[in-house]
Amino acid sequence: xxxxxxxxxxxxxxxxxxxxxxxxxxxxxAPSVASGYEVKLIAQGLTKPRGIVFDNNGQLLVVxxxxxxxxxxxxxxGSCVNLKDKxxxxxxxxxxxxxxxxxxxxxxxxxxxxxxxKYEYDANGQSIKGSGITIVSGMTTQETLTRTLLLSRKxxxxxxxxxxxxxxxxxxxxDVNDGQSQIRIFDATKETGDFEQGTTxxxxxxxxxxxxxNPRDGGxxxxxxxxxxxERDGMDIHENNPAEELNYHGKLDDSGSAQIGKNFGYPxxxxxxxxxxxxxxxxxxxxxxxxxxxxxxxxxxxxxxxxRQAPRLxxxxxxxxxxxxxxxxxETLYVSLHGSWNREDPVGYSVSYIxxxxxxxxxxxxTSTSALNPIISNSNTTGCxxxxxxxxxxxxxxxxxxxxxxxxxxxxxxxxxxxxxxxDANRPQSAxxxxxxxxxxxxxxxxxxxxxxxxx
Length: 456
Hints:
Elements: H1 2-20, E1 32-33, E2 37-43, E3 49-54, E4 60-64, E5 68-75, E6 82-90, E7 99-101, E8 107-111, E9 116-122, E10 127-137, E11 147-151, E12 158-163, E13 182-187, E14 193-194, E15 199-203, E16 210-213, E17 219-224, E18 231-232, E19 235-236, E20 244-251, E21 262-263, E22 269-271, E23 289-291, H2 301-306, E24 313-315, E25 321-326, E26 332-337, E27 350-355, E28 373-377, E29 391-396, E30 402-406, E31 411-417, H3 431-434, H4 440-455
Parallel strand pairs: 10-14, 15-21
Antiparallel strand pairs: 1-28, 2-31, 3-4, 4-5, 5-6, 7-8, 8-9, 9-10, 11-12, 12-13, 13-15, 16-17, 17-20, 18-19, 20-24, 22-23, 25-26, 26-27, 27-28, 29-30, 30-31
Helix pairs in contact: 1-4
């Protein structure tokens, strides 16, 4: 009899594992995964998923372009994640990237190219009440579509909104009052009106899609996707210049911060990556800014390096950083690299990390070319961008797992450490989520106990 019980338990356990750990297969070569990590494809069939965030009940909210905001219930431990019970939360096809949720979980924010909306959110019903309120407007541009949102956890009530340029090299952005290529600060509780009414955190940023707050010290960081088809002195240098950038913007609660309100160079100045391909580079170093004025560009380099704020780190051109997320201790910054469209040899298409020190700054110097450490990347980029995943949004759950959307393939991945361990082991769990989490092993134990009780 005991053997029969063990056999039945093994069958139930195998069935539970199979049901809780679905196996999905992509239509492109399997990703390359760095040693010490596990990456699993957990959802397919989404419509260009971009920004993602978890609500206070542990449900995953996703911005799908052309659809709106959808939600999933999340089950499973380790990399065995099951997304189920998909539901449309906000049916607005104009929403295209930005998403945030208040600390109490009762207010949802989302953005279109034109507006930022605020909704009263019910996590239990995975629904909103009413149609939402427009709190920021007047942001339409021709070149860039995304409006990244960040709610500060250090300075309560502050909402950051990032808006890109109106064209590839937009000369109108030399005027701070133009309102484009900027990150501005808003009161999340109020209906502000036009974007230009916000407080300027930073300007001279072509398209700062990734925006994050370091939980260690409250420092604000952004990643900039730089200009394409750049020339200097009549020479095309776009293949390996200018660099993508990681920029530091100071702390919102520090009114005396020298970083707040800085200009980061665009559209006149750009970070250098391969100085050997920049005409008349002179002593220009990686990470320093250079000018692209049509006449006498080299004479303007001094202006770029004294009157404009240099990037803290630079990345290979055309990698297109889209989202950034710190771990809970501010020791590691994770970056989604959407990948190139305008380069002979495709680059990017990965999720990588950057190490940070106790001072709240990257451990690598500003001249480093190796600050990014890949975790998951496309194993064959020759088919990119059409036949590979393109990382877009990132989000943490309360179990320390990192989720990644791929807008080009309509997919979601989860990233953990080897053996299904948390990528961020220090991330605090909410009681509401942990109380509803059942592992396959736990279910098997329950089944075993039930059968013992039955046969005893």
